[in-house]
Amino acid sequence: MFRAVVFDFDGLILDTETSEFRSFQDVFEKHGAVLELDVWKDCIGTSPSAFDPYRYLEQCIGRPVDRELARAWRKERFEQLMKEESVRPGVESYLRRATELGLKIGLASSSSRAWVEGYLRQFDLLHYFHCIRTRDDVARVKPDPELYLRALEELGVAPAHAVAFEDSPNGALAAKRAGMACVIVPNPLTETLMFGETDLRLSSMAEMSLDEVIARLEKSRR
Q1: Using the 8-state DSSP alphabet, how is residue 192 labeled?
Q2: φ/ψ (deg, to 5) at 165
């Protein structure tokens, strides 16, 4: 029986990932270069150190870039794009239902605590979570399982009794390495990427109720 649900943040609860990628694409276009998803994909859902877009841009155009100026422009562009974003469909319904079912609710993100909690406060979701673990709390982020294991330790729930909700291959791999069931809910950026082992795939959380998701996962384990 499942006793906890643990959510990723970026791209799953709020699609910051598409805006992040688009803002960097616009930086590249501004400099006469192209940033392809195939180059970007490996850094989705993991540490920012996995890929240096400014170094790659310099390699593409064969000259140095004013990184401070580029970063400022990229940040402004990202913030413009994020004005169009809201919480992904079905997310709050899942959080409310998990609360009604008495499930422990956790969050495990490779982003910083300030980033995650800032958005959760903005959209009035912070109160749903019993535990939040971010890159500030671990030595290794996804696809390492440490974030999930730390969250489950705090929740007091064994991995076999917890479900992870993820949108990226790196995140799904972390959840499975932690020994959890994993439901993937890709966003427009990650929907074409190749995922490894998962237990269920949804187009959005509005597609299926949390009760049905849990029932399907429990049935598959019997």
Answers
A1: T
A2: -115, 125
- Choice among 10, 15, 144, 167 that is catalytic: 10
10 catalytic per annotation? yes
> H or E stretch including 174?
helix 169-177
The count of residues in the chain is: 222
Residue 26 is among the residues annotated as catalytic for this protein = no
The single residue of 8, 15, 167, 199 carrying the catalytic annotation is 8
* pLDDT at residue 47 is higher than 90: no
pLDDT tens-digit series, residues 172-217: 999 999 999 999 999 999 999 999 999 999 999 999 999 999 999 9
Q: The pTM is what?
A: 0.94
**Tokens, residue 107:** 């969050």
Contact indicator for 21, 39 with CB cutoff of 8 Å: no
